[in-house]
Each structure stands twice: as structure tokens, then as C-alpha cells.
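Protein 1 of 2
SEQ + STRUCT:
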Amino acid sequence: MAFSWPSALRLAVGAALLTAAGVALFTLPVEKILKDFLLWIKENLGAWGPLVLALAYIPLTVLAVPASILTLGGGYLFGLPVGFVADSIGATIGATAAFLLGRTIGRPYVLSKCKDYPKFQAVAIAIQRSGFKIVLLLRLVPLLPFNMLNYLLSVTPVGIVEYMLASWLGMMPITLALVYVGTTLKDLSDVTHGWSEISTTRWVSN
């Protein structure tokens, strides 16, 4: 492949984002930061809380940091109907932001990572015939790590509208389950309990 500065720049940006995510997850007190963030929403934002919670999915998903704590927090803070809507929209816009990043400046880096996921080769071929159905199935039955899937799908022919709709529908069951669990928690500290171990495991598996 011929060298080009734009491709090298895009590859560097992708590598930098992945490195930043790894450093943040392993060195920063992410659990405390997220807990303080949820507490700030609870005490200060009132009716704006669900919107801010939804938008918070964008940086976490782009940096491949598991956002399940936000989903639990949505249930804890806002109850089932409002929490589910906020978390469902947030998860979708977060996944879409990662998809768009992978389709643009991060594309060379994502292509370089595809070889690490041999199962994805068959997925890419199937998407050419039925993009919506395959993305929906992948969200319902996660054969590939969720955060990496956002980027891997960005280099397939699936359209952005198909991707968003299939992702939204496919993520609904797990979102609903986590929001419901959040509504049963008695204290905000329960939302983050054990999160660091879970998130680290998911990062390594990615």
C-alpha cells in the first residue's frame, strides 16, 4: 500500500484514541468520576438530567469505555420509563458517534484491527446482503465485543440509518434489563459497586 499522509494521520488518531481509553480505564478513578457525575445530575440538573445522561454516552462509547453504569444510573435516578428512554437514546447516539468516527478519520485503524476478529469476515459478507438484519442480530446476540463492534461495522457497507435503527432495537432488551435493575437499587454507591472489575474484564476481552 502506498504511503499517504492523510492515511497515516487517520491511523495515528485511531491509535491515540485507543491508547487514551486504555490509560483512562486503568489509571483514572473512572468509578468515582462516574459516580460523582451521576450525583451531580441528581442534585443539579432537574428536568435536564435525562438529556445530559444520554449525551454522556458519546465520549464513553467513542473511547470504548463500558457505559453500563450510566444505564443503571438512569434507572436509579429517573425510574423505568424516563430512564429507559434516556439510556436507549444515549446508547444509540454513542454507538453512532463511534460508527461515524470509524467510517471517517478512524477508518485505516479499524481496517488494521479487522484481522484480529476472524469471525467478522463472515459478518462483513453477510451485511452486504442484509445489513439491517445482521446488525440487529449482532446487538441481540453479541458474538463480538460491543465497543469494538461499533467500529468494525463502520467499515462495512451498512447504511447509517440501517445501523442506527438496528442498533437501537437490538440494544433495547439489555438496556431495559439494566434500567430495571437500576430502579431496584437503594443507594447511588450500589450503581458503581463492582463496576471496575467488570469494566476491566470487558476492556481486556475487546
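Protein 2 of 2
SEQ + STRUCT:
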Amino acid sequence: MRAIQFAFSAAFFLGLSGLSFHRTHLLSALLCLEGMMLSLFIGLSVWTLQLSAANFSPAPLILLAFSACEASAGLALLVATARSHGSAHLKTLNLLRC
């Protein structure tokens, strides 16, 4: 495994471990998801550049657009839960109560 592939896979798994182990606040979970999406974007961009494939060139831009939509939806949920529940801690949220 080359160093650049190791860096992107390590960044993805660090975001995944942060999402699974530090689930105290909704904003930290959203930041971990955003870090995972950005590492996927950079990895896909480097992959298309290394292969010199012109037919895969719009794929990183599509992934980046989905990442922006996911971030905006996550921030909207963060604001909605902070207004309705008073805090955005994940331990205080109950799916049966929402």
C-alpha cells in the first residue's frame, strides 16, 4: 500500500472511529461524517487522476455535491433538535419522544 492510499484510508477510519466512540454531541458526529466524506472525495479524485480516466472525472464532483447536501441537512437537524430539546447531546435524544 502506498503512502497516499494509507493516508486516505487512515483519515477515513479515524473519522469512522470518532463517529463510533465519541457520540456525545451531534455536532461532533456531523464533523466526523464530513471528514469521512472529504477523505472519500480526495481519494476518489486521486484515483481518477492516477488512472487518467476521463469517464470517471465527474464522480468526485457528484460526491462533493452529495457531501454538501448531507452537511446542510445535518446542520438543519442540529438546529431543529437544539430548539426542540434544548440541547444537541445525543444521549438526551430519544427517537420515541421525537
